[in-house]
Design a protein that fits this description.
The complex is a heterodimer. By secondary structure, chain A is of the alpha/beta class. Chain A has one domain: Thiamin diphosphate (ThDP)-binding fold, Pyr/PP domains (Rossmann fold). Chain A is built from 8 helices and 10 strands. In chain A, helix 8 links the parallel strand 9 and strand 10. The two termini of chain A are 25 Å apart. By secondary structure, chain B is of the alpha+beta class. In chain B, strands 1-4 form a two-stranded antiparallel sheet. In chain B, strands 2-3 form a two-stranded antiparallel sheet. The relative contact order of chain B is 0.29. Classes of the chains: A alpha/beta, B alpha+beta. Chains A and B meet through helix 1, helix 6 and helix 7 of A and helix 1 and helix 3 of B.
Chain lengths: 264, 90
C-alpha cells in the first residue's frame, strides 16, 4: 500500500485556500496511518462540518462527513458497531469546542477508542472568519473588530481533565512530531486527542498582520514552547509569556477504554 | 530520482521555501499552468532524498512533501539519458 493510494486522487487538488494548514495535517495523518500499515477496509475517517472536516473527503478509505459538532457521536457509533475499525476523527476548533463541546467532554469521559485530530485554526474559517472559542485574547476577527476580549479554551487541558488517554498538541510547522504524535495516538487504546495549531492566512492572518502563510508559520515557530522547557520555566518561577503556547505530549496513561475488543 | 512540483496542484503558498533544510525551493517569478506563481528549484541534485532514497530503501527527509498542503511535491524516476542542466560556478 502506497502513501499516494490513501488520497482520493480524482478529488485533488483540494478546495482549501493557498497556504491552508489542513492539507499538511491530512498529509501527516495519512503518513501515520501508512506507517502503521493499516488496511483501507479497517480504517474509517469521520468529520463534522467546517474547513477541517473537508479532509475526510480526500481519503480513499471509508469516510463519513457528518453534522456540525456531532462527528464524535457518529464515531462512537461506528466504533461500537465495528470494534475492529480504526476510527480517526477530523474536527475543527469550532466543531469540537463550540457546538460539539458536550460530545467532546463525554467522549473523553467514556474513553472510547478513537483518535481525534482537532485542527485548531483559531477561527471559523469556512463561514467568513467569526471568532471561535479558541480565538486568542486580543485577536481581531469579523465578529470581534476591536479585539477578542474573552479568554480562549485550552482544549488539551479540557481533554486531560475529562479523562482522555493520550493528549498532545503540535503545530502545522512541526510535521515530524505531529506524525509521531498521531501514530502514538493510534497505538494507545482509549481516546487520543491531538490538537494541531494551523494557519488560516485568509480569514485569521489577513486581519492580524500575518497575510502570508509563511508569516503564520514563522509565528508558530517563535511562539511554540516545548513542554519540557515550559515545565522548567514554571519550576524556576517564570510564567509563560503572553501569546506563547505549549506544544508537546501532555498525557499518556492507560485508563480502561471503551470499545476495545476483550482479546486485545 | 528527481524532485518535481506538480504545477496543476501547487497553489503558490511558498511553504516549501520555509521548511527545506537545503533551501532548494526558491520563490518563483513566473506563473504556472493554473496562474499561481510556483516555486523554482535551485540545484535540486542536493536533495538527500533524490540521492539516497534508493540506497537506503526508504524515504529520508521528506519535509517538503509532508508540509506541502496541496500534495504537489513528489519524487519520480529519471528517464535514461535525460538532459541535465549544468551550471558552472566559478
Amino acid at each position: 500500500m502506497n502513501l499516494e493510494d490513501w488520497y482520493r486522487q480524482d478529488r485533488l487538488p483540494h478546495i482549501y485556500c493557498a497556504g491552508c494548514g489542513n492539507g499538511t495535517v491530512l498529509n501527516c495523518t495519512l503518513r501515520a496511518v501508512q506507517e502503521l500499515g493499516f488496511r483501507q477496509e479497517e480504517t474509517t475517517f469521520i468529520s463534522g462540518i467546517g474547513c477541517s472536516s473537508r479532509a475526510s473527503g480526500y481519503t480513499s478509505s471509508d469516510s463519513l462527513h457528518t453534522t456540525h459538532g456531532r462527528a464524535l457521536a457518529f464515531a462512537t457509533g461506528v466504533k461500537l458497531v465495528k470494534p475492529h475499525q480504526h476510527v480517526i476523527v477530523f474536527t475543527g476548533d469550532g466543531d469540537c469546542s463550540a457546538i460539539g463541546g458536550n460530545h467532546f467532554i463525554h467522549a473523553c469521559r467514556r474513553n472510547i477508542d478513537l483518535t481525534v485530530v482537532c485542527i485548531n485554526n483559531n477561527i471559523y474559517g469556512m463561514t467568513g472568519g467569526q471568532g471561535s472559542p479558541c480565538t486568542p485574547y486580543g485577536a481581531i476577527t469579523t465578529t470581534t473588530p476591536y479585539g477578542m476580549h474573552e479568554q480562549p479554551f485550552d482544549l488539551c487541558k479540557l481533554a486531560e481533565a475529562a479523562g482522555a488517554n493520550y493528549v498532545a498538541r503540535w503545530t502545522s510547522y512541526h510535521v515530524k512530531e505531529l506524525t509521531e504524535a498521531i501514530r502514538s495516538g493510534l497505538e494507545v487504546p482509549g481516546l487520543s486527542f491531538i490538537e494541531v495549531m494551523t494557519q488560516c492566512p485568509t480569514s485569521f492572518g489577513s486581519k492580524n498582520k500575518m497575510r502570508l502563510a509563511t508569516q503564520m508559520i514563522d509565528m508558530f515557530r517563535e511562539n511554540a514552547v516545548l513542554k519540557v522547557k515550559a515545565d522548567r520555566d514554571t519550576a524556576a518561577g517564570k510564567p509563560l509569556e503572553p501569546g506563547k503556547f505549549i506544544v508537546g505530549e501532555f498525557v499518556r496513561r492507560h485508563n480502561p477504554p471503551l470499545g476495545v475488543e476483550e482479546s486485545k | 530520482m528527481k524532485l518535481v512540483i506538480n504545477d496543476h496542484r501547487c497553489k503558490g503558498c511558498n511553504m516549501c521555501t520555509k521548511v527545506c533544510p537545503y533551501g532548494i525551493f526558491q520563490e518563483g517569478a513566473r506563473p504556472g499552468a493554473r496562474g499561481y506563481i510556483i516555486p523554482v528549484l535551485d540545484h535540486p541534485e542536493r536533495c538527500t532524498n533524490c540521492r539516497l532514497q534508493k540506497f537506503y530503501g526508504r524515504q529520508l527527509c521528506g519535509m517538503c512533501q509532508t508540509t506541502c498542503p496541496d500534495q504537489a511535491i513528489s519524487w519520480i524516476d529519471e528517464q535514461p539519458f535525460e538532459p541535465h542542466k549544468v551550471v558552472i560556478e566559478y
